[in-house]
Amino acid sequence: MTEHEYEHVTVESLPDAPNPTRRKKEIDEAVGASEFGFNLIVADAGESVPWGYHYHPNHEELFYVLDGTLRIETPDGIHTVESGEAFFTPAGAPQKAVAGTDGCRLVAAGAPKDRDNAVIEEECPECGQSTDRDYRIEGDSYVLVCAGCGTDVEELTPGPDG
């Protein structure tokens, strides 16, 4: 026995995490990574990856597209990220990533892991204000709630393997 804790997982056997995409495999959670996030995401055309327009105040993100296309909206414009390309978002920089017309499969990595809280800045369909989202857990789902008026905005459920 060594002093190190090595982990080896089969990614496809991992359960899907609650999210707005078809699949999200939280590989970092499965192996016990504590310093960085690392997820495999499969998104159908038009699905948000994983939040709407948002930023992470103290957390960097990197998207690496394995298959398909990812469109990323930033204050600088729309960036199209194709298979084999990567896109980096610095801490505090707003963005919204959406799977292209052919969908996509990508790796999303971020650090530091313990600071990955997202601040969502989208218009609430009920009150019309651009607000953040709170959330609550209901069973195996996350329910996003408008921080301004308290209306349930979206329910994130696990994919088919959840």
Written overview of the protein:
The chain has 162 residues and is mainly β. It has 2 domains: 11-116, Jelly Rolls; 121-157, no CATH class. 3% of the residues lie in helices and 48% in strands. The chain contains 1 helix and 13 strands. It has one helix at 27-31, and strands at residues 23-26, 37-43, 54-55, 60-74, 77-82, 86-89, 96-111, 119-120, 122-123, 130-131, 133-138, 141-146, 152-156. The strands form 4 sheets. Strands 1, 2, 4, 5, 6 and 7 form a 6-stranded antiparallel sheet that branches. The relative contact order is 0.22. The mean pLDDT is 92.
Short descriptors:
2 domains; 3-stranded antiparallel beta sheet; single chain; 162 residues; globular; 48% strand; mainly beta; 3% helix; 6-stranded antiparallel beta sheet; 1 helix; Jelly Rolls
